[in-house]
Amino acid sequence: MFSTGIENSYPTIRLPDGTMKRIDSMEKSGHYQRWKEDFNLVKDMGLEFLRYGPPYYKVHLGPNRYDWAFTDETFNYLKEVDITPIVDLCHFGVPDWIGDFQNPDWPVHFAEYARAFARRFPYLQFYTPVNEIFIAATFSAQYGWWNERLASDKAFVTALKNLCKANVLAMQAILEVHPQAIFIQSESSEYFHACHPACIPQAEFLNEKRFLSLDLTYGYPVSVIMYEYLLKNGMTEEEYNWFRDNNIKAKCIMGNDYYWTNEHLVHKDGTTSASGEVFGYYVITHQYFSRYRLPIMHTETNMKEPDAVNWLQKQWANVYRLRQDGVPIMGFTWYSLTDQVDWDTALREDAGRVNQLGLYDLDRKIRPVGIAYNEIVEEWKEVLAKESYGVHMNY
């Protein structure tokens, strides 16, 4: 499944003057005006799959109230041009009437939205109900950057359990409509390196914590340390057991996102910083595969110019090596189709800085990485199709 994506983050941030603002990535990239052109560029790339979702905060107007106008236009055109969407239902934000990820009522409302969407488009099979749960909870409730802008372990655990419950309930709701639906979790693949022997305990703790979103989603038993951490910070035994009893893992492909910023150094004062690529996608994804034994898709990566082409080739080499080593890897994604805006500050600033990360720039002119990706798709898709039935699925 060669794919790309339309970046559609929409968290709320606090501006320097104290006002709140919704940061809508599709608005910043011009997608609302140029969506048909964008989909045609996906076809020009030779891609059959697209990570794409409606602007959730604009569609879900209230309990059982929806505005499907833009969604109908875009998804009907995707069907017309034969692009298969991997439907991204929640990407780092919620509608204003929900508030934020601390709201315990949100998971049920979100499941209703997912069910309504599936009923409206019953032919769609692939879904990412909630994108990058670990990042959404961390940036919103641990770092204090987005949405609720809290910075505590209790706020993090609250956001995490609500995001994971919303994810599971949405999958159950979609399956009621489409029993053959497949869910591709897009989750950030993290690793924490101890830069001094004194940092080893903290690094070990963080390397357990990175799994929490998938542990809860997949009903995987957490370590004793993580169980104590969850209960200490507001999760009840009943809430934890709910995830064990609502295991929906059999319908899932594990999406692993990997960027240059996904590996971290742990310092003696307890802080962390980016380490750059130390292990790389192969090693870290193998850790996740060993834990969950699920089929995998590389669901996000990018690198700014002028290093993008080299990064693409390196990521593809890692993906193909995993496949050759018997890991059931189902797809690859360069994210996103066009350049992004303000991701250099993780959307914390509304500065309008263009980040040269796309297959195309914001004038919709192809970048060198777009040419290179098109070549990979053309050169490899037939070879991979022939190999598909020979891959050893040892999971």
What's the CATH C level?
A: Alpha Beta
CATH topology: TIM Barrel
**Can you name the CATH architecture?**
Alpha-Beta Barrel
Distance between the termini: 20 Å
Structure annotation, total helices: 14
> What general form does the structure show?
globular
Largest sheet: 8 strands, parallel, barrel
Count of all domains? 1
Strand content: 15-25%
CATH superfamily membership: Glycosidases
Helix content: 40-55%
Weakly predicted, low-confidence segments: 389-395
Tell me the structural class: alpha/beta
Spatial arrangement of strands, main beta sheet: 1-4-7-8-9-11-14-15
Radius of gyration: 20 Å
Mind explaining what this structure looks like?
InterPro entries: GH (IPR017853), Glyco_hydro_1 (IPR001360), Glycosyl_Hydrolase_39 (IPR051923). Helices cover 43% and strands 18% of the residues. With 395 residues, the chain is an alpha/beta fold. The chain has a single domain (2-390), classed as TIM Barrel (Alpha-Beta Barrel), CATH 3.20.20.80. The strands form five sheets. The protein has an eight-stranded parallel β-barrel, surrounded by six helices. α7 (153-177) runs parallel beside α9, α12 packs parallel to α13 and α13 (308-324) runs parallel beside α14 (368-387). The protein starts with a strand and ends in an 8-residue tail after the last helix.
